[in-house]
Amino acid sequence: MNDYLLAALLGVVEGLTEFLPVSSTAHLRIVEALLGIDLGNPYWKTFSIVIQLGAILCLPIYFWPRLVAFARTFPRGARGDRTVVTHPLSLTLLAFVATAIPAFLLTRIIGKHLESLTVMAWSLIVGGVVMWVVDAAYERAQQSVFARGRPTEDLEEMSVAQALWIGLCQVLAAVFPGTSRSMATITAGELGGMSRPAALEFSFFLSMPTMAAATIYDMLKSLRPSSVSCVETLARRPHTSLPSIPPAGDSLTHEDVSDRCLTTRHCGRS
Question: What is the pTM of this model?
Answer without folding.
Answer: 0.73
